[in-house]
Known about the structure:
Layout: H1 9-37, H2 41-67, H3 70-93, H4 96-100, H5 108-136, H6 160-173, H7 180-210, H8 215-240, H9 245-292
Amino acid sequence: FPVSKWIGGIFFEHTHRLIASTVGFLTIILATWLWRSDDRPWVRNLGVIALAGVILQGILGGLRVTMLKDEIGILHACIAQAFLGLIVVIALVTTNFWRSLSNVVVDLKKFAPIKTMAIATTVVIYVQLALGATMRHQHRDLAILDFPTANGAWIPDTSATALTKINAWRDAQGFSDVTAFQIWLQMAHRFLALIIAFVVITFCVRVWKDVRQITALQRLSILWVALLFFQLTLGAWTIWSNKAADIATAHVAGGAIMLSFGVSSWAICWRILHGRADERSTTRFEARGAEVT
């Protein structure tokens, strides 16, 4: 595409495509490297899954352009977050830190609930990102223009009469009309943010209380809480700024980092609880390979 025409939206769209192509090539290299150099079959499979995921992303990205379907855009956004989580796992399991976690000893009764919280929080964050993608791909003004209240109330009135008044005011201000579904979609996003805040803070408290020997997990939990408050601030600022592009984009990026912290916590907890079994499985696989050769 001619560089001279990289102006405005074309610049952002074409840059997005070029970055996507770069990610695709890097994923091919990553999958090949894992297959040739890593001795763990399940890690090799992660590389294959990542390659399949990036191919699917490319197809969905193309279909989003040719078919102009918002549903495809939402799916494209959700798979992007899942792909990020997968890459985070691959990056983590290929470190010496990952191998060292098999030697960590914890109280299983205290640690099992921490792992459950890590899993639950990660899943809820992913759902939250999906809700955000659904709102973004409506390509409309914010359904609720105030915060922390919603159309002047803590629980919005979405009756037919109330919607008529709300839309009359929005029309006068130059905003797009809104439906009850769009209002409750944003409310669900807000409610879920509160749930995420509660669980992330609880996770941090439990980690510092019950597994002080795992310094990396302690530090990660502190960073997670710090990012949580920053993300909540960005969410409120997105509304107060009427969805300013830079603030909204930072909010999306913050959500992705929140997910990566959740995936990392989940993976670390899994490794600590199941690391020895994984090491034994790998050793047996290597032994069988030696016998065959």
